[in-house]
Design a protein that fits this description.
The complex is a heterodimer of chains A (101) and B (362). Chain A has 101 residues and is mainly beta. Chain A contains one helix and eight strands; from the N terminus they run ββαββββββ. Chain A is 7% helix and 30% strand. With 362 residues, chain B is of the alpha/beta class. Chain B is elongated and about 65 Å long. Classes of the chains: A mainly beta (101), B alpha/beta (362). At the A-B interface, α1 and β4 of A face β8 and α3 of B.
Chain lengths: 101, 362
Amino acid sequence: MRITDHPILDFKPGRLVRFTFEGREIEGYEGEPIAAALHAAGIRVLRRSPRLHRPRGFFCAIGNCSSCLMVVDGVPNVRVCVERLREGMRVERQEGHGELK
Amino acid sequence: MKSVEIAVVGAGPAGLSATLAAAGQGASVALIERDEHLGGQLVKQTHKFFGSARQEAGTRGVVIARRLGQAVREQAGIDLRLATTVLGYYSDKVLYLEEPDRLAKLQAERAIFATGASERMLIFGNNDRPGVYGAGAVQTLMNVHGVMPGRRVLMIGAGNIGLIVSYQLLQAGVQVAAIVEAAPRIGGYLVHAAKVRRAGVPILTGHTVKEAVGEEAVEAAVIWRLDEQWRPVPGTEERVDCDVICLATGLSPLGELMWQAGCRMAYVPELGGHVPWHDDDLRTSHEDIYVAGDASGVEEASAAMVEGRIAGLAAARSLGHDRDVEEKLGEARRELAALRAGPTGEKIRRGLESLRQGGDGR
């Protein structure tokens, strides 16, 4: 959910763009981190861990911890908490370590 | 290969202040920041700072970030490199940089590492479930990107960060179920605690989280009481309805680059973990490397800014620059001492004392 009314801050989002998550089309603001757009759309499970396949979401939000690695436009291990959203991106949950194609 | 006199790594409060201080002495400075914005974690601090006017007390962090960032952009002679990650520091004083599309090298007579700190994890059942977020992450999501972290948050930790972020959550329209604190008393300033209590948020001291509940993501948390020896008391479990468990359990200094560069590191719990040994000029055991801010020991942003000034001035002085440098250093040292005076600075003073003696050797 987006914050619409804040006593101190004024949010100036970019242009509304479309991208896909697991093949499903959703919207987000251009230039915001992919993770923010996903979270705003209610998506919290971003990948599954390599051995036990446990669901993982984001944790640090500043590119430190690698909890949020996803496959973006076919490229694995993208830190979606810092990667900026662009129109038409294909975002997919990552299974395990991901595969280089 | 390009060369500069001073390379500053990290554009948070410490790095920006170091850059301005060094450039103000006439040194050529490169400021390297992995993010695309200046200000580091100040950009999500919506609360007003404490301290004296010299350290911007009464001003919101986000405004301080804007001011310092603008000053850096307006100051001549600063080579600003955003979206650039420092990968390593090598013996010929060369930094390897990862730019968006290429690798680059930069030679620097002195380096100032102002790399900050990272969120600390807490051990409990299912602590990897989506919905268990660091307090900094919650702030980034709501204060920078305008996205609610969830509907109802359980806050772990009643230090200043836990208290302030709880209040910020309420401002953003998110419920705070409770603040849980393992210690027998609240660690943060009572003025912050009073604010969240007035808003109806209970603060449960002597409690901790036992586990996160939920198959795919957090749907609730189980908390339990701790006895005088900090052992959980079976039978005191309580279920708390929440979709976010927010960890405000402290920060660890980010010292990887200094480990790699060969600086002598010491483990000092009071400073947040492993930090480089350093003197009053913030110079490490490596004569060309300085440190400032949380990377030198976790403290408030106000202290980070003064440390940045000291490191910037001292590094410039070591290269022969002198625009009233002694006087400015003296002034900054007095400010830092004043910030650390009194009971709230006791832990830091103890930590620095232990660091001078080499840490506890771990």
